[in-house]
Write the structure tokens for this entry.
Amino acid sequence: MSIKLDEILKLNHFEHAKVLTDIPLQGEFPVEAISVQEYPAEAFVRNNEFILTTCMSCDEMDIFVHFIEGLCRLNVTAVAIAMGCYIEEIPREIIGIAERNNLVMITIPWEVAFSNIVEDVFNLLKLEKNLELEKY
């Protein structure tokens, strides 16, 4: 059971979001789960997950690189980074790592509450699951 990333990006919470990676979003970008993660996250992330993060531990470039490379290894679909408190801009090197690994990287304003995003994405996933169950 999954929804497509473009369904998530149509939510009101992403009205002021920016997709940083130059990856065509028309393709299949399945999202099976959503979570809030900070570095290190590798033990807590699963395939096709949508990650929300503040990157509060990524003040050093090598840590930021390790965090994004780890998400890529785990086949995360997308990472949305709240901008403004811990991170002011995403270095081009980080965006390049995401692009080379087909990880969609998004920035969202600091004021957007993660809990609202999680609730709405969870509801989309639940709706999709209910539609699948109705087939049987």
